[in-house]
Amino acid sequence: MSPAVPVAEPIIQVDERTSAHRLWATVVHDDPINTMDYVTWVFASYFGYPRSKAAHLMMQVHMTGRATVSRGERVRMEADVVAMHSYGLCATIEPLVDLSEGGGEDR
Fold it and tell me: Which tens digits make up the pLDDT trace of 78-92?
């Protein structure tokens, strides 16, 4: 029997510069249940947006079916999604590919 050949563990390198600073987005989706006034109120109340910005985001949800309402670190965006669910809104978290994506403010 021949001696065992040592097997090297693969080296997995994570680019800390991109993963640590990667931005995520909270996206609210259109639903047939909540009124436009209610959605505007949620955006103004939870995110602290002025009524005009909250109304603009609500119209984006209504017209296109979705709107990015906040951007930031993943943990914070997960908290925003949970908050939107607690208000009865349909929301998801998505990675931001392009920083120029419109919508919510960085949090």
Answer: 999 999 999 999 999
